[in-house]
């Protein structure tokens, strides 16, 4: 199983980035999927999560209305579109996949596989 995250970078406040995570070797279509992030000196936290039901999406309060989480089952890839970025969004972002689930998962322990992380830096 491999999760390959990409799309991070340096952006000014107010800018946008799209993170991608390609998943291989895992039943992507019905998996619980998630994006987490870890800022320097802080614990890793959930950013967004989804189950296989398209209506079952979770966003952390800090990113609601700015981030959009989606999956493309034809490409076995998940995306995190991040708009109106703020300096406090600076972190290493991780994608994760877990077992078949209709609804989203928000705890790290509920995910089996993780990507390597991609750095997002937002300058003020």
Q: Care to describe what's here?
A:
This protein is mainly beta and 124 residues long. It is 0% helix and 52% strand. It has strands at 2-6, 9-12, 17-24, 31-38, 45-50, 57-59, 67-72, 77-82, 91-100, 113-114, 118-123. Strands 2, 4, 5, 6, 9, 10 and 11 form a seven-stranded mixed beta sheet that branches. Strands 1-3-8-7 form a four-stranded antiparallel beta sheet, with no helix packed on it. A hairpin with a 6-residue loop joins strand 5 (45-50) and strand 6. The mean pLDDT is 96.
Fraction of helical residues: under 10%
Q: Stretches where pLDDT falls below 50 for ≥5 residues?
A: none
**Amino- and carboxy-terminal Cα gap:** 37 Å
Sheet/helix structural class: mainly beta
Indicate the multimeric state.
single chain
The succession of helices and strands, N to C, reads EEEEEEEEEEE
Main sheet specs: 7 strands, mixed
Q: Cα-atom Rg, whole angstroms?
A: 13 Å
Task: Count up the helices.
Answer: 0
Q: Please give the number of β-strands.
A: 11
Report the β-strand fraction as a percent range: over 45%
Net shape? globular
Mean pLDDT: 96
